[in-house]
Amino acid sequence: MTDLTYLPDRTALEAAGLGVEHRRGWALRDCSFRIPAGRICALVGPNGAGKSTLLSLAAGLRRPTTGALHVFGGARPSDRAARPRIGYVAQDKPLYPHLTVGETLRVGEELNPATWDWATAERIVAAGDLPPAARIGSLSGGQRTRVALALALGKRPELLLLDEPLSDLDPLVRHEMTAELMSAAAEHATTVVMASHVLAELDGVCDYLLLVADGRIRLAGEVEDLLSVHSLVMGRHEAEGLPREFTGHTVVESRVTGRQITALLRTDGPVAGEWEVAEPSLEELLLAHLRSPDAPPLLTPGAEPRMNVPAPKEAV
Amino acid sequence: MTATATPLAAAPAGARPRAGLRGLPWLVLRQHRVTAWCAASALAALVVGLVWLRFGMDDFIDSRAIRDACITSTECPTAQATVDYFRRTAGDLLHYLGYPLMLLPPIAGMFVAGPVVARELESGTYKLAWTQSVSPLRWFAVKLSVPAVAVLAGGSLLSVAYTWAWQAVPEVLLPGQAWYHSFDTLGAAPVAHALLGIAVGALAGLLVKRAVPAMGAALVGYLVLAGELLDNLRAHLVGPVTQLSAAQPGLIRDRTWMLERGIVTRTGEHIAEPNCGVDVSPEGCLARHDGAGWYLEFHPYSHFWPLQWAEAGVSVVLAAVVTGGAVWLLRRMYR
Questions:
Q1: Closest Cα of chain A to B100: distance in Å?
Q2: ipTM score of the complex?
Q3: Does B26 touch chain A (CB under 8 A)?
Q4: DSSP-derived pairing of the beta strands A250-257 and B257-265
Q5: Which of A173, B17, B169, B306 has the most CB atoms around it within 10 Å of its CB?
Q6: Which residues of B touch A101 (CB under 8 A)?
Q7: Residue B316: CB partners within 8 Å, gap ≥ 6?
């Protein structure tokens, strides 16, 4: 990260009391978080956790049932001024199947006359050897993903929302596209929010984390901060129940294998006793939280929303 | 096809010189390029056909001197064969050439409901437009404006051509295609109906959100509005003429849309087409119902254009109301 892209005081996306009700219940419930500008944020959660709903709210495709979601420190995503500054790639990568690749890029130009960046869009398309005259309908899933990303990046958004962007790419192309994305994001100080349940997609790429499960925010904040307040503790399992030394810390998850106990603790000071203590990896942190839905949510100070929280409108 | 291919390989970054439509209208037209070409070709063919038919009919009527022909064969047996021939050929052709105008409103409605609106909602491509800096409201407005402008321009041209061809024929030659029979294909009515069809289609597309069912909904919706409401309203949009007479009036009168005949009783009550039984003379019938005389309600030909504009006005107002409902729905759903 360069200094240019690190803007802790500016907010790209924040929500307070956010809720979305579907016909079959709440997709999101009472979500509050903040993503500072310039971050590469991983939006993680199991299938059906509300990731796509959250991203489509941020893209201005739907509106919340309760609470509010703001972009760029105060605008609604559907505001006339905000819409051109947000890029979005939906999970199913909708494109017009009868248009050619070249025509699809022209759609980007026609609909974003002020900001359209032909060079970026064409570079991404050209890297995949896509002939401009090829019809979208004749492309493979991975190729369509490439065109959809070219459209989103050619718009030069300040906030780029990607819903499972790389899931249908092969590992080699995924690696290459990730590098492409990151360099484009770094070049223009773009904030990226990337939903995924492929944890390998995210490690080493993201510096911010939003963990959603069951429509609620479970973890939010800098990846580094989140990792540093957690400890992976291993030792001998002596008696039934949790070891006494764990009291005072929040136990996210603990597992016993034979006489060995492994626990992920949200530590408050050092853990007393004879324990092997290590900082968890991102994957370990995420898996532990996903396996333990009862662990209390954690927002680092930077991830607390700074907007005025609107009075909760309780749905009947 | 049109020159929309982009020279991608050697093109540098930055704005490119473009001619013609830009922005969202370009996209809408590009999406429906094939439909636009088919519609334009059909329009051209129909207009050429109508012009050719008008000159042919003029020529035939004048050269055979049947302009003042009679309605039944007993009145003038000599010209009857010629008149029959005219009705069979030119008359039928004129009749069939009116179908495209009559079908334009429901077809326009189904087109807007399915391919224009619901297909985007169904396939998710609306997300693409809405996240490429186009607000849902503007997207919807342009989606409707492009077909509306096309219908206004193309439909008007076709209607003018049809009305012009139709005017060549005296009513006695084609009694089945009098102005009140062909009302839906003449003047402003078909264009205004088509605008109503587009509005109904837009609402159906937004409500149903799936292309094929939305087309069905648009068709049903339009048929209910036009068939039930407009058709029943038509005769009352302009006050009909009521004539009183002592003797029973005849129902055959040139260029006149007969609405109702009946008896005026001594108390001033109107009894429409009183049932007097078989073999009762009109006088006997009058006496049986204690009638003072007969009345006849009708629209003379001079009411043709006032009725046309009144119906067009009602259609356009209805279209505006339906469009308003669709916009309200869109805002409620997506903002």
A1: 28
A2: 0.86
A3: yes
A4: unpaired
A5: B169
A6: 8
A7: B192, B195, B196
